[in-house]
Structure formats: C-alpha cells, structure tokens
Design goal:
By secondary structure, the chain is mostly helical. The termini are close together. It has 18 helices and no strands. The model has no long low-confidence stretch (mean pLDDT about 90).
C-alpha cells in the first residue's frame, strides 16, 4: 500500500507540476515559445521569483473529481456525485483558471437540472476531459477488472464531452496510469493500449452512455464506440512509429500528432513525451509543455504519467514546496492510497 500511495502522490503532483509550468504560456505558439526559450527544454523553468506555482483548471478538476469519487456510496451514484463536485468546482470563486467554455456551459446546464445527456456537449472531443481521468485511475488502481475503470472513465468524460473519441481517450489515459502505477514496463505501454482497444469493444456498457450513441451517423452503440476506438488506435500507432525515430525527438510534438486540442491528440502527445524521457520526469513534462498546443493540459498529462512511473523521488524538491494545492494534493493522495477501491 505504501508503494502505491507513493506513486499516486507522485503522479498527482506531476499532474499539477505540468499544469503549473504550462499554464502561463499555454496561449503561446511554438514559434513564440522558441523565441522565449531558445535552448528549448533546457531553458524552460519556473520563475525562481515566484512564491507559488499556480496551477490551471486541469489540477482543480482532477481534485474535485477525486472528491466526487471519494463521496460516492456505490457504483450507482458515481455519475451523480462526480457531476455534483464538478458543479461545486464551477461555483467556486477560486476556480477561475480559463477553463473551456464548452465545459463551463455543460456544467451550467447540469446545474439547471437538465438530464446529463442533454447537458453534455454531444459532439465535443477536447483534451480537457483527460486530466479528470486521473482520479478514476488513482481510485481504481488496485482493481484488476479493467471494464470497471473503463466504464467509469467513459462516465466521467461523458458528463461534459459526448464524442466517442473523448470517451475512449479518457479510458486509455486511465488505463495508462494504472499500468504505470502497477510498475509495468513503460516501453510495453503502447502495445498494451492497442490490445486494450481490441478488448474494450467487448466490454462496452450501453448503461453508462444511455442514448449518447443515438446521434446522426450511428446505428448502434458499438458503431458509436468504434469511431472512438479507430481514432485512438491511429494515434497510438503513430506514437509507436515515432518513438524510435531520433530525428523527430527535438520537433514540436504537435508536428507529429496534431496540436493536442482533441482528446486523442493530447493522449498521443503526452504518451510520446513521457516515453521519450520515461526515466526523467522533469524532461517529460517540459517536452510536453514546449509545444504548439495547450501547454498546461499536455504538461499535466505527461506529468501524471511520469510521476506514476518514477515515484516521488523523480521531481525537484522545490517544485513540491511551491506548488499550489500542495496540501490538498498530498492529503487526497493519502486518502486514496488508504481506501482505493478494491
């Protein structure tokens, strides 16, 4: 239990570190980033004059999703409880970190009492759904039944994002974290994810998405899911193709996988950056942040992966002391470590 708790702590902090490092520069293009940091990741550092490293909405929503998981009585209440805590985040005046307007509007509709399938954005596939999936991975890290945490990942994503690719990418990010928290070989992770995609279709539960699949162009729940599986498989295969190509390792990751605004692109970029520097979590985070896409989200995802694999010894000590929400992150991680769902 102690080892699992250590890795959950390191992963949750890693998510916050990447979020905070990328948050101030998330609106800059890659050309602007290179002008500011001509030596690339070697120049990218936190401002030493800062008393606190401020995170973005990814860390906040991951924390609130974790609270929703903690307070769920049973699997039947997960959607209601996670939605409730995300609306608490929506109402909190301190949670003002420029979240996606699509996410905010969905939560506003939830507050008004709309059924979740009417409140969510039916065709939205965006990267900001993935960080919340970390909470599912942490709470379910000791569960050996993958269909449980896949369905929970579908569920949490579908609260605000109804696109099949967003749902599948969220499940794959949770799967990646659980794979690393269990101390599996990171180099085998892409192959594991490709096998998971093959198995995922057989574990699909219509119960979790109700009538989301009843959009124009889909004739069945399985056809709906297959669209997300196809898009995510393509991106994972691109990671496999590029990870051993040293000529591409210094490029903006967005040139290889897309800018990272969609969930499948963000999954691929964060996975690629982690695998490039899997033994050096600080470098993995910086590689993800230094990209043309949403630097804060990409950094948070790569940081969560790197922390899950390396444990707490992998991060600079001053990052721990200055990160915003440091007390909440460690307390929640310890609660999860003691009570992770079995």
């Amino acid at each position: 239990m102690a080892e699992l708790t250590n890795r959950i702590i390191a992963s949750f902090y890693g998510l916050a570190f990447g979020d905070a490092l990328g948050h101030p520069i998330s609106s800059l293009t890659y050309e602007e980033l290179i002008r500011n940091y001509p030596a690339g990741i070697d120049d990218l550092e936190f401002d030493p004059d800062l008393k606190k490293y401020i995170v973005g909405d990814d860390t906040q929503m991951a924390l609130f999703t974790s609270l929703g998981m903690r307070n769920s009585i049973s699997s039947e209440t997960y959607r209601k409880d996670i939605t409730q805590y995300l609306t608490f985040w929506f109402d909190d005046p301190l949670c003002n970190r420029h979240a996606s307007q699509h996410t905010l509007k969905a939560l506003e509709r939830h507050k008004k009492g709309l059924h979740w399938t009417a409140a969510t954005n039916l065709s939205l596939n965006r990267c900001d759904v993935l960080a919340r999936g970390s909470a599912i991975a942490y709470w379910m890290a000791r569960d050996s039944e993958c269909s449980k945490y896949w369905n929970l990942s579908f569920l949490q994503a579908s609260i605000t994002h109804g696109h099949p690719t967003a749902l599948v990418a969220s499940a794959l990010f949770s799967e990646s974290l659980i794979w690393l928290l269990k101390r599996n070989n990171p180099q085998q992770l892409p192959a594991h994810l490709l096998m998971s995609l093959t198995a995922m279709e057989q574990c699909w539960s219509e119960h979790y998405v109700e009538n989301l699949w009843q959009l124009p162009g889909y004739s069945s729940p399985s056809e709906f899911l297959r669209k997300g599986i196809k898009a995510c498989r393509k991106k994972i295969e691109e990671v496999v193709k590029n990870i051993h190509n040293t000529e591409n390792s210094c490029l903006d990751p967005s040139e290889l996988f897309g800018e990272g605004w969609t969930a499948d692109e963000a999954l691929a970029i964060s996975l690629y950056c982690f695998l490039l520097h899997c033994d050096y979590p600080e470098l993995a985070v910086k590689r993800a942040v230094l990209s043309n896409g949403p630097s804060d989200t990409l950094g948070s995802l790569a940081g969560a992966l790197a922390g899950a694999y390396n444990g707490s010894e992998g991060w600079p000590s001053d990052w721990y002391t200055k990160i915003e929400y440091k007390d909440e992150l460690i307390e929640m991680s310890r609660i999860i470590g003691r009570g992770a769902i079995i």
